[in-house]
Design brief:
Mean pLDDT: 88
Number of strands: 5
Number of domains: 3
Number of helices: 18
Shape: elongated
Strand order of the largest sheet: 1-2-3-4-5
Helix content: 40-55%
């Protein structure tokens, strides 16, 4: 009744255009071109589900070919599935139902194109949207942008079931695919399945990957070859790498090829970290003993002597103006 009253009282500058803008949003110019004059009542009095189908159809049009008033008859007389099929080439299962779950106001044109892409996956992620009682546009965009391979779909499903933040889902899938390329799909899926934090699981798996080969070897300096070995040394020396975040960061630096850990066994045990300075070489970034003890001048002199033949290694911390 309120809408009918507005239609009777409206004008081009009155409440009707304001109501159209409120409901149609980005589609207002198209709606006003298709439902001209009094026929705008057909648009405003249609169900929300019907309007969303119309928006989806308009969103599929080429921007160079704007809709016009001749489309009104086709839009109003054609079944919803047939409209979507004509606009997108097919109407994926659940597409009409998804649009019917949206509120009275339009979404952006990009949303409707993303909704088609998400539902046209026809996989477990599409079914997540089908079975959702309420549609979160952010979830639609996330699902639409994900690769369509079965591994990604399963991994994203695990992430969503664990209530991972939506902004992390794509990142989890990318990391999972990269780890799976090294250790196998099933190893990743088995580890993530049922985990309360897939991101945390992947973080541990990345840290556990084998370290790259040592960039150089010097007698008396024993390379750390795995994250397990680095963790063991950290525990035995009771140093700062026993902190989970610092340990993970250290492993990532090694994986990236910008850090190299080794240890000196005698006269007392020391853990050394060398950091790469681009193509210039390496410098001694950290050197600690038991409980983060700093090395003595004599100990420093010993491994400086061992590395003296290597022109590409600087055995001290570089000036703060350099790094």
């Amino acid at each position: 009744m309120v809408q009918e009253h507005l239609l009777k009282a409206g004008s081009d500058t009155g409440p009707v255009p304001d109501l159209v803008r409120f409901i149609a949003g980005d589609f207002t110019p198209s709606v006003m071109a298709i439902w001209q004059g009094d026929t705008v009542a057909d648009y405003l009095l249609a169900s929300s589900a019907q309007r969303h189908v119309w928006h989806a159809v308009i969103a599929a049009f080429d921007d160079q070919s704007p809709p016009h008033s001749e489309l009104r008859w086709w839009l109003s007389r054609t079944r919803r599935k047939h409209l979507l099929r004509a606009a997108y080439g097919n109407c994926p299962p659940g597409m009409v139902q998804l649009l019917s779950k949206l509120g009275p106001r339009s979404q952006t044109p990009g949303f409707y194109r993303a909704a088609y892409q998400a539902m046209n996956r026809r996989d477990s992620l599409s079914r997540v949207l089908q079975h959702s009682s309420r549609i979160d546009p952010r979830l639609v965009f996330e699902i639409a942008m994900l690769p369509t391979d079965p591994f990604t779909a399963r991994l994203a499903g695990h992430a969503l079931r664990s209530n991972a933040p939506l902004f992390q889902v794509a990142e989890i899938c990318w990391l999972g695919r990269r780890v799976a390329a090294l250790i196998g799909d099933q190893s990743v899926l088995s580890a993530v399945s049922g985990a309360s934090s897939p991101f945390g699981v992947l973080r541990k798996m990345i840290a556990a990957l084998p370290f790259p080969e040592a960039p150089w070897l010097v007698e008396g300096l024993v390379p750390i070859k795995t994250s397990v070995e680095l963790a063991q040394v950290a525990r035995e020396l009771e140093n700062c790498l026993t902190d989970h975040d610092q340990f993970y960061s250290a492993c990532l630096d090694v994986q990236a090829g910008v850090a190299f850990y080794c240890q000196v066994q005698k006269p007392e045990r020391l853990l050394l970290k060398f950091t790469q300075l681009g193509r210039l070489g390496w410098f001694l970034d950290e050197c600690r003993g038991q409980a983060n003890r700093y090395p003595s001048p004599q100990e420093i002199e010993q491994f400086i002597e061992r590395l003296s033949a290597r022109e590409d290694v600087w055995c001290e911390r570089l000036n703060y103006q350099i790094v």
